[in-house]
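re: that complex we talked abt at group meeting.

here r the seqs, copy pasted straight from the sheet so there may be weird spacing, ignore it
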Amino acid sequence: MLEIKNLHARIADTGVEIIRGLNLTVKAGEVAAIMGPNGSGKSTLSYILAGREDYEVTEGDVLYNGESVLEMDPAERAAAGIFLAFQYPLEIPGVATMEFLKVALNAQRKARGEEPLKVPELLKRVKEAAGSLDIEMGMLKRPLNVGFSGGEKKRAEILQMKLLQPKLCVLDETDSGLDIDALKIVAEGVNALRSPDRAMVVITHYQRLLEYIVPDTVHVLYRGQVVRSGDKTLASELEANGYAAIVEEAA
Amino acid sequence: MNMHATILRTPAEAALIEAFAERCSDLPGNESVVIRRDEAMEVLKQGLPTRRVESWHYTDMRRLLSSVPTYDAHGHAEVLAPVLDGSVVLPMLVGAASGAAPALEGVTFRPVRDKLADGSLAQALVPQGDDDAIGALNAAFVRDGWFVDIADGVMVERPIELQNVQGGGQAHVRLPVRVGNGVKATIVERQTGAGAGFVTSVANLVVGDDSDVLYVIVQEQPETATHLGQFNAWIGKNAKLTLFVMNAGGKLVRQEVRVVAKGEGSDFQLRGVNLLAGDTHTDLTMVLDHTVPHTGSRELVRNVVTGKARGVFQGRINVHQIAQKTDAKMACNTLLLSDDAEFSTKPELEIFADDVACGHGATVTEIDRNHLFYLMARGIDEKTARGLLVEAFVASVIEELEDETIVEALEARLHQWFAEHG
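got the structure back, here u go
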């Protein structure tokens, strides 16, 4: 479903290269964990997949269902089924969360040639999804992410993911800032979305999240490259020994 | 008014003088009112203010007011559904209070023509200084309006809407509002209509001690109308006044806000939203006086300017020498959406006390790229995402009002404006 081939990318403003020849393949139904020390390029990778303009791809390609996404803007990628759960969801004063959900959902439906959802149907879906994530409806009347706690923001990201039903989910450090109860709720939400026709890229610094979202494959990112791939046991190995051994190997 | 000699009158100035000559005998008022009208007219005969008058520097009335419609309204106006559901509506149609005074517990309403006829409003017709062109125009021509008197201790159950609907001619109204002590009330001043009207409207609000008043001005004149509004308020001890101003229409608009924090512990909040489009000119000018110790104020004005529209915000805060512990903050933020759009901001602090916390800031901003990316990453196309963020820029001012039904009603009007101009 996702094929990243020899990807090189740099920060557009400064020209600093962050991704340096990255290769990664994630199949439909697969949950791939991306691990790595700070500064290895994990978040940059997530932004490039979502289409953020601040990064410039200088070489290589990103294929989604066999087609390059590099010429697509973020909205087109989202409509095609790519979803990024942000590490730091943005607070947007003045945009009511519910209104945002409606506009986003219907924008994607429109891009796919589907009819817009009627308000009662939308409310029903939001209520169901919110209930399973322990999100109170009152929270959704507030402006988007404004005044939400760290945990509420992360749950709101998963709520959006549940509603939008993307095909490729990229979760950037979804565990950061969560206590153990919130982590369990979020992980349950993510696990409920695992399906044979959906792929997930779970970016995390710690193994903790992977106890709750058990990956099929684990990839270690270092200096903008995948330096080691394996199954879920690789995550435990990293937890026990740290990144040092792998990093030395790569160097 | 500026006293410079104007030998050649502009068509607008000539039309005003002619209208007064024709109409003055028909306008309501006892002898003392007639004297005030004549005095005001003498001031007007000196000419409309130009850019050489400091307080009118950005709004040169002599140049901008190209014509004035005849006094007689051939137009037609009808009572509209109120901005807030369940409001008591006091209509003014084509410049005249319409219908019987409604019943509302603890509140007395009277048409202003009665208070002109008995002379009780005469003193209030004196303009506030040489540059008070709006006060003078209104004093000369005022025909009617509604007087609102809220008794001490009344929690007014329903919002009161003062609804001024012009019909394409001239409409000059006055809105004296007396709020007693310990009152809670919401008042909406609605300025709207159809056609190229010429409107002056002067509201005088006295807020008693320990009262809490929300006053909302919704100005939605058509893009052919001239609207000159003035809001004067005096705030008593430990009283709170929140003034919300939304300018979303008009060809030539000036809304003046003159507030005196005269009771210790009083608080004034101004929230302003200017939505400016087309080939129009809109001026929001505030003068706030902190005259006693321990008073606070905060002003937040947000502007969205598109097309060839020009906007002005002048905010002047005077902190008098005895007004120690004044806490005043003023901010004006503007989003310019087209190359031809213009906005001028002039914040001024004049502080004579030495133990105060006062500040002001003015910015011209662009849409936040991170916000744009976040919305687009959810599948919202760039144009729609930008629209949402522009609307959000001003909606966040509205959301600071505490009452949810009021927030929703104002956001609906905002939404409508963006639907028409976005």
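couple things i noticed - Residues 227 and 253 of chain B are 5 Å apart (CA to CA). The two ends of chain B are 38 Å apart (CA to CA).
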